[in-house]
Amino acid sequence: MNGYEYAIKMELDGEMFYREQALVNKDNVLNPVFLSLAEDEKQHAIRIKEKEAGNDFLPDEEDMAKTKNVFTDAAGLDPEKSTTEQIDAYRKALEMEAKSIDLYKKLLSESNENKDLFEFLIKQEEKHYNLIEEIIEMVIRPNEWVESAEFGLRKKY
């Protein structure tokens, strides 16, 4: 399996994982977040296939901005309704995104002609990683953060 094939498989596995998480979270505000992440992974796989077929890669500015916007959909997340299984799934997603970032950095360092594609994918996966990190923080913070509302210094969330 060459680097392109492995990257395509990782993206499609990511799409499948996020679609499963969308089903698990169908009754809360994370559903559209996971659906959007699944669609991003699907589009990444399509772009890699196109590049493998010899087509030019042109990053789409709309794609670059879309991932951050999806986080606004999670503004009404109720951490009290999150289960241990969900938190484990978020951490697995974080791990998957980290593996994707590592793979694309490796492929970038080994590639002479596909740098634009791999740089785009690294940026996209880093946005996904940061998004999932923020979800995890929102979910676990109520269980870890205790202080006086009158005197404490808290980060906004």
Automatic annotation (TrEMBL):
It comes from Fusibacter bizertensis. This is Ferritin family protein. Residues 5-133 form the Rubrerythrin diiron-binding domain. CDD domains: Ferritin_like_AB. It comes from the Bacteria. The lineage of its organism: Bacteria, Bacillati, Bacillota, Clostridia, Eubacteriales. InterPro entries: Ferritin-like (IPR012347), Ferritin-like_SF (IPR009078), Rr_diiron-bd_dom (IPR003251).
